[in-house]
Amino acid sequence: MSTPELTAEQVNADVAELLGCGLDELTPDTDLADLGLDSMRIMSLVEKWRGAGAAQLEFADLAEDPRLGHWTKLLTGGAQ
User: Fold this and answer.
1) 11 CB contacts (<8 Å, ≥6 apart)?
2) Is residue 80 a part of any domain in this protein?
């Protein structure tokens, strides 16, 4: 599901902005649920990233493993 338009930096920035935290608080092992991520926020990211070219992205893709590294790998094809 790699999306050329999305970079690891963009994924990280979008997540940090949504959660109201600094990029320095995020690592690939960060469990985003621990930082307050909920289903409504996941859906807003799904919609944002679909608009950026991740047309096949589904809620379950992100919800099943809320670690930032998993999301980055899923959306960028492995770049973290």
Assistant:
1) 49, 68, 71, 72, 75, 76
2) no
Beta bridge partners of 67: 31
List the domain range (segments joined by +) for residue 26: 8-75
Three-state DSSP at 78 gives coil
- pLDDT tens, 29-67? 999 999 999 999 999 999 999 999 898 999 999 999 999
In a domain, 23, yes or no: yes
Angle (deg, nearest 10), helices 39-51 and 8-19 = 140
Closest CA to 33 of 68, 59, 61, 66: 66
In a domain, 3, yes or no: no
The domain total for the chain is 1
Identity of residue 65: D
Amino acid at 14: D
